[in-house]
Structure formats: C-alpha cells, structure tokens
C-alpha cells in the first residue's frame, strides 16, 4: 500500500481519471450525494492546480483511497458550500488552516461512519498522511465537514479535535465543522505508518498539468 501526495502536475492523466472515477463511485453511487458529474467522473471547482491530493493505491496500482487538501486563505468547499456548519464563527481564512475534503478509503469509509475494517484502518493512515503533508506546508490545523461522532473517535486515537459550531442537519445527516490540531508525529497504529516508514511519498511535477482541465471540458 502506498499513499502519494501531490498536485495535478504530479500525476499521470490515467491516475487522475481513476481518481475521478473512484470519487464518483464512492460519493455519488454509494453515498448518494447529488454532485455535478460528467459521465462517471466527479470533480468540482475546488479541484484546481494548487489543490493537494492524497491518493492511496494497493499493490496492483488500484486507487483505494483519496482526499483533497486546500489552504483556507483560498476558496474552499466548507466556506463556499456549507457555511451553515460554521454558525456565527467566521470562516477560517489562513495558510495555517487547511481544509480536508473528498475523503474516502477502502469501500468508501468516511471518518465517523461505518465501513469495512480495512477501509477504517486506511482512513486513519490517510488522516496521518494528511497531517504530515499539511505540516510540511506550514499548516497547523485541519478543518472538515464531518459526521457527528468523529470527535470521540479521533480523541480515542490521541488527536485534539473539536467543533467550530453546533452540528447542523444537511440532507438528513448531522454534520459539523471539525477542527483537528495537526500532529505530524501522530500515528494511528503502533509501529505502523501508511508507507511503512513514517513518510508520505511526494510526487514531483510531471506530465499531467492540464489533465483535470481536460476532464472538465464541456462536451462538443
């Protein structure tokens, strides 16, 4: 299992297409989210050239997990789409705070929701990788639209997590803006890291600079 961090310039067009298909399978087909899609690909306006992705792949090269990281001093999903989750709290706008979104692992496990045991284990590994990645960028906190109950789960693993505002029901599910203090040394499993070394592989810029833009082009 490997978890790789990078921007769209870091991955081949095939990997980006596979990521968009995986996101569609998880968020649209399995979770039933009503998202703008193109065919069986799921991307939105927050999939930009400056977006950092985490992509988990199994030994066969298949994508088994994804997440997206955005600094909050630039446009991000929570502030733009779910501002009600922040209540009276001003939306974070700082390079110190990064949004974690489009987070899924294994069979579609999301933090705070049920799923297969392997998916849950991978989800925690991906959260650990996200914190190490954000720490390298100077980030000190993550914020994410999360299902109720995630605070308790994260605290059991030793993380500091709390609500930015009271939970709000969205499409029948209680969600809240979860703030997580970044701990780059946190590991959910004793003597175990996502890549076996405690490091997250970081892809250098490569040949796919316009790949996501080509995915999003309108039909002719």
From TrEMBL:
Among PROSITE patterns, the record links this protein to: AUTOINDUCER_SYNTH_1 (PS00949), AUTOINDUCER_SYNTH_2 (PS51187)
Q: Which reaction does it catalyse?
A: a fatty acyl-[ACP] + S-adenosyl-L-methionine = an N-acyl-L-homoserine lactone + S-methyl-5'-thioadenosine + holo-[ACP] + H(+)
EC number(s): the record gives 2.3.1.184
* Keywords, alphabetical: Autoinducer synthesis, Quorum sensing, S-adenosyl-L-methionine, Transferase
Give start-end of the signal peptide: none
Coiled coil found in the keyword field: no
Q: Name one Pfam family in it.
A: Autoind_synth
Q: Which molecular function term from Gene Ontology is one that the record holds? A: N-acyl homoserine lactone synthase activity
Domain of life assignment: Bacteria
Biological process according to GO: quorum sensing; signal transduction
The family database entries (InterPro entries) matched by this protein are listed as:
Acyl_CoA_acyltransferase (IPR016181), Autoind_synth_CS (IPR018311), Autoind_synthase (IPR001690)
Describe the family membership recorded for this protein in Swiss-Prot or TrEMBL: Belongs to the autoinducer synthase family.
Q: What is this protein called?
A: Acyl-homoserine-lactone synthase
Source organism per UniProt: Variovorax beijingensis
State the taxonomy lineage. Answer: Bacteria, Pseudomonadati, Pseudomonadota, Betaproteobacteria, Burkholderiales
